[in-house]
Amino acid sequence: MTTHYDVAIIGGGIVGLANAWMAARRNLKVVLFERTSVAQGASVRNFGMIWPVGQLAGETLTMAMRSRDLWLELNAAGAVELEECGSLHVAHQTDELAVLEEFCNLGSYEVSMHTPAETLQKSSLVNPEGLLGAMWSPTELRVDPRTASANIAKWLAESQDVDTQFNTPIVGIDKKTMTAADGRQWSADKIVICSGSDLQTLYPDLLQQSGLKLCKLQMLKSIAQKETIPNSPHIASGLTLRHYSSFRECPSLQTLKARIAEQTPELDQYGIHVMASQFSNGEIILGDSHEYGDDITPFDSLEIDDLLLRELRKVICLEDWTIIERWHGIYAKHSDLPVYQASPEPGVFVMVGPGGAGMTMSFGLADHAWNTTLGN
Ligand SMILES: Cc1cc2nc3c(=O)[nH]c(=O)nc-3n(C[C@H](O)[C@H](O)[C@H](O)COP(=O)(O)OP(=O)(O)OC[C@H]3O[C@@H](n4cnc5c(N)ncnc54)[C@H](O)[C@@H]3O)c2cc1C
Questions:
Q1: CA 75 → CA 25, 141, 179, distances in Å?
Q2: Taking CB atoms and a 6 Å cutoff, what residues make up the pocket around ligand 1?
Q3: pLDDT tens track for 36-56
Q4: Mean pLDDT of 153-169
Q5: Which CATH number fits domain 3-47+146-210+336-371: 3.50.50.60, 1.20.1330.10, 1.10.238.10, 3.40.50.1100?
């Protein structure tokens, strides 16, 4: 006889964990399946930036702020450790400063402009050479991505009664019965598939035609710096303004984009925009690049790493630029939606592809889904 649950979640990344938590909050009997012994996908390979300031004003920003509240709830419950670090978008070019000032004037975000002196007071990592100012946002959080997923899974198992089944790849679903690679089976009234960048195992036809695309990002970590700043704000450069949809309302963005396209087209070619986040042990996660679809190879490019470091040196100053780790991550992203959702058969739901904002958005997305479709 198979064990039966109210809800089964497939995938132990941040999207799966968020859905497991939302189901457990409703006192449902929940099981979570993860292919590997500990999540190893995008959810452990990222910056750990909870980044509401990058989300489009309106419903998406509201969801990001709801997600932030839920992260803080997890922090208060002892499931994860968070830093309420905020973020600085630094400007070393006049068009970057103009975009940031226009963004502040939108009035939709809790942001303010800082002079160079105020910026350097917030973070001594910022490169003072040619610094024109920065935009300060207090809403961003930092979580350690290396440990967060495992810690949340442990907390769900220990405090929320979620049955966690690691080393369990689910290879088939039929009439609400799930089959693992070794033939074991379970059933559930609701099955939520949160399979991250694996678009090929479960419902491959649906996922291949969903409009989801894979994106590869290269990342670096610096050696621990002697000087550590408590609650060191995340730092984003002017290049980042091209990346997050929240800035698209700013008229000067076109000037900025045109300058990059003309003067440094290699940054557009590899989707490079640089960000830095210093952890309390002094190490700094640095990134990132964006390569899509058929451009993705298993091999990391030294040219991209060199470009990242070239651009990072323009915006931050480190006493020691020794790189101690290099890695890449892959996420699925939908061109129009904050996440792809579908129901391929009764009782089965798919939530895949929060793109580059999964750490920021997943709790808000899951909360919204459980308050609407999934909770019915
Ligand atoms: C380099 C990088 C930096 C990023 N930085 C940030 C950031 O700072 N802030 C932010 O908000 N977002 C960031 N993101 C995006 C964020 O990390 C992703 O959106 C998010 O982690 C996706 O979560 P997920 O659960 O969908 O996928 P994953 O983390 O990939 O998890 C999916 C899990 O499902 C499991 N799985 C798949 N199929 C099966 C199956 N059939 N059976 C069992 N298990 C299965 C996989 O093993 C995997 O563990 C970044 C992403 C990358 C790659």
A1: 16, 11, 34
A2: 10-16, 33-36, 39-43, 45-49, 51, 169-170, 194-198, 201-202, 217, 219, 287-288, 329, 331, 354-360
A3: 999 999 999 999 999 999 999
A4: 98
A5: 3.50.50.60
